[in-house]
Amino acid sequence: MTEQTPGPISREERAARAKTAFDHLESPQDALVLFDDQFIFYYCGFAFFPTERPVALVITREGERILFVPRLEREHAQQVSEAERVADYPEFPGQHHPLRQLADLLTGLGLEKAAIGVDHDGYPPVMGYDGPALSEALPGAKIQRVSRGLDHQMALKSPAEVTLIRESARWGAHAHRLLQQYTRVGENETEVEARATKEATAAMIAALGDTYRGQNRWMSGAVALYRGQIGVHSALPHAMTTGATFQHGDTLVTGAGAAVWGYISELERTMFVGEASGEQRRFFQHMLNLQDIAFETLRPGRTCADVDEAVRAYYEREQLWDHWRHHVGHSLGQRIHESPFLDIGDSRPLEPGMVLSVEPGLYVPGLGGFRHSDTILITDTGMELLTDYPRDLDSLTLPA
Questions:
Q1: Of 191, 321, 325, 355, which sits most exposed with the smallest number of CB within 10 A?
Q2: Which parts of the sequence belong to the Creatinase N-terminal domain (predicted)?
Q3: Which of 223, 197, 168 is nearest to 333 (CA)?
Q4: d(Cα 98, Cα 92) in Å, to the nearest integer?
Q5: pTM
């Protein structure tokens, strides 16, 4: 399905991210201490499962990266991370708490009285973790949250990142085609999802080769699913799987994507089992109109709020507010949801390199939900669709 097999983000690109991270901050910092696993992966390539044992990444102004891990992760971190140094502590909670050992490490680097930018003031409460704030463990330092600046850096995707997101979109579409093909009256949602995902993942692995890795905590392989949005339950934007059996007349809302070297995409479609009713057709067309308005508004220089406001004006004009549930979309890449957000309350400007979902929806209790989601790239002159899947009613009507 692809002529050139994409590889992971290069060591050089990750190292450059660490050195330039400080350029995105609103105030000068002497160092960064990051606890979020996604920031850690972004800056040093260490993909791991967060537990109650703290993991932190220290980045100095010079770009040196020091990865602080529990003993059980030492070899893992040494083998796969790109940090210049790995430091470890015995266990959590231990006799000497890990956050106080991290404070000792920072003191050894001469940062005990420094300005330190953080994503959290200490390790967040994961799996029962409890411990002091970093500002408590290192009282002489000036601790300041800088997540907004780091989120801005992460939002501006490099050409290599866009390549991986394109590849994710390609395989997500393949999984979705299989999902659509196998969905029939009398079939079970769980079995159809499993079959489509298994076959698409096998095809992707065969194409991308033995060195391929997903490296994403939200998605594994090439995935297509319904998440319970079947029939009347499709009117619940975040429904959960119920093991439903497909029936004639069902409104279906799908989701598909693929994990490719840490990056993902988002593809969602509204489908119907059998010919759509007049009401289904009416709301389907409104949904297409809403997404088209968003597409027309997405371009550099406009703000995230501008997009949501343009879409909201259509809800107002067509008297659809009873069926509104959420904003237009969000950034994505490593995370399934990233910043910024296509929301009336987000005044940040759209910039070339941003990758976002576009997914305004309508939800009609008793009838169903109506939502397409596409992944787009903000370009120098407008936007580009990265997901390529039919949007029209005929293409999304399944045999009854």
A1: 321
A2: 30-148
A3: 168
A4: 7
A5: 0.96
